[in-house]
Design a protein that fits this description.
Blueprint: E1 5-8, E2 11-13, E3 16-18, E4 23-24, E5 28-29, E6 34-36, E7 39-42, E8 46-49, H1 57-68, E9 75-77, H2 83-86, H3 89-95, E10 100-103, H4 107-114, E11 123-125, E12 131-133, E13 138-143, E14 153-157, E15 162-166, H5 186-201, H6 205-215, E16 222-225, H7 235-246, E17 252-260, H8 265-279, E18 285-289, H9 295-304, E19 305-313, H10 324-332, E20 339-346, H11 352-362, E21 367-368, E22 373-376, H12 381-399
Parallel strand pairs: 8-9, 9-10, 10-11, 15-16, 17-18, 17-19, 19-20, 20-21, 20-22
Antiparallel strand pairs: 1-2, 2-7, 3-6, 4-5, 7-8, 12-13, 13-14, 14-15
Helix pairs in contact: 5-9, 6-7, 8-12, 10-11
Bound molecules: flavin mononucleotide (FMN).
Flavin mononucleotide binds at residues 261-266, 313-317, 345-351, 377.
């Protein structure tokens, strides 16, 4: 069969690209698609590491059959029960009824909840540090609770030093030919990787930090995640990114301005702030209308940049409904290490600025750079002066790190 990719002589990538699904988890757009990675180890015993999402399991099974070339399947390792990796599991267990299914104590109750008919006699429960002997390859397991589900674990091949990391070190973006980090221009994938991290794993920074610490003594020659490129050349690079992102440390000195508007007054305010930021020498300024750009992209840039300026018109005594969910997510994910600015628009008793202020008060570890600016209707020259003050204060804070 075509497109059988070898990671090493006896380890194969049998994943599948998905360029059809519009939205990951039915809400995050996938303009560059996504890859569901699965791997097969062909040793005295054969072993599959994770499966794929519903819809691409046919291709996965075809590849697997080809790799096995008539051999039976002995083991299926389930690092994570989320359906984008366990969607192919039901078919796989049916086709290979003798295969032992390897997971931890938290894996199997989830498996039974998703696949009622799963044969418990085949369940093989492993705990931290247990070894699974495939012949030449010896696999061991490390628990990664809440990266990003309770049962998440990683599998480490002690023989070839391969970390099957599941969602850790994963990325959005289909694998457009290049499978390995040295076959692609990573700059091309970086934004999609950060977007994946921020939106999927972003809430669990502390757990990711624990995972990095736990994995640091291991010699790792390959990182085989369950989405995106396989790392074999610049492994330090991907670990460095995850280390930064999980500490919520910004990578760049730019500023995100995100606003919600019905009739354009709040947008005028956003543009004035953006212009002054540029005049003050901030080269990376990203301005987003929260009603138009999907929040997963905005969140990714918020992860990237040091400055965040939020604006909202007033709507029924509260925040504008298209700004509210973004702030909810940032609060839920515990945004920190950012300089914040606040602005908004109103006509009678406000609501927008109040809502942003309540959001900022509920967070720890961020600094508001200037007094919030609330404008009534069309901004006056005096209003513009105050808005530009936010920009100047933000630029000054950011430049102080140069
Ligand atoms: C449906 C609706 C609800 C509104 N609710 C409030 C409100 O609770 N408090 C307030 O001060 N203004 C309220 N306004 C007025 C707008 O906030 C005001 O016109 C503002 O200038 C709109 O800013 P924009 O041009 O950026 O959309 C409301 C307007 C609309 C259309």
């Amino acid at each position: 069969m075509h497109n059988l990719v070898k990671v090493t002589d006896s380890v194969y990538w049998v994943g599948a690209n998905d360029r059809k699904t519009e939205r990951f988890e039915n809400y995050m757009p996938l303009p560059m698609g996504v890859a569901y990675n699965s791997y097969v180890i062909k040793d005295e015993k054969t072993c599959v590491i994770d499966t794929v999402e519903f819809g691409v399991e046919g291709l996965f099974m075809e590849k697997l059959e080809c790799v096995l070339d008539g051999k039976d399947l002995d083991y299926i390792v389930v690092n994570h029960m989320e359906p984008d990796h366990s969607g192919g599991l039901r078919d796989l267990m049916k086709k290979y009824p003798n295969a032992k299914v390897v997971g931890n104590a938290k894996t199997f109750p989830m498996m039974k909840a998703f696949i009622h008919e799963a044969n418990e006699e085949n369940f093989h429960i492993v705990k931290e540090g247990d070894v699974l002997d495939l012949g030449h390859h010896k696999l061991t397991f490390a628990m990664m609770p809440m990266v990003h589900w309770p049962e998440s674990m990683v599998t480490y091949d002690t023989t070839e030093k391969i970390l099957f990391s599941n969602d850790a070190f994963g990325s959005f973006g289909a694998l457009d030919g290049g499978i390995f980090d040295d076959e692609v221009n990573f700059d091309f994938y970086e934004d999609e990787m950060r977007r994946y991290y921020a939106n999927i794993v972003g809430k669990y920074g502390m757990q990711v930090q624990n995972a990095i610490k736990k994995l640091s003594p291991l010699e790792i020659k390959y990182i085989c995640p369950s989405h995106g490129i396989v790392w074999r050349t610049d492994i330090k690079r991907v670990i460095k990114h995850y280390d930064y992102w999980s500490r919520l440390e910004p990578e760049s000195e730019g500023v995100v301005i995100v606003y919600g508007t019905m009739y354009g007054n709040t947008a005028k305010q956003a543009n004035a702030i953006a212009r002054e930021l540029s005049a003050q020498g901030i080269k990376e300024v990203k301005v987003y209308d929260a009603s138009k750009t999907d929040h997963s992209f905005i969140l990714s840039d918020i992860w990237k940049y040091k400055g965040l300026i939020i604006g909202s018109c007033s709507h029924n005594n509260a925040l504008y409904p298209k700004v509210q969910p973004l702030l909810h997510k940032l609060q839920n994910y515990g945004l920190k290490n950012r300089y914040l600015g606040i602005f908004g628009n109103m006509m009678w008793s406000g609501g927008g600025v109040r809502g942003i202020q309540a959001f900022a008060d509920a967070l720890n570890g961020n600094e508001i750079v200037a007094e919030a600016v609330e404008v009534r209707g069309n901004p006056t020259l005096e209003d513009y002066e105050k808005l530009e003050n936010i920009a100047r204060a933000m630029a000054e804070k950011i430049k102080s790190h140069r």
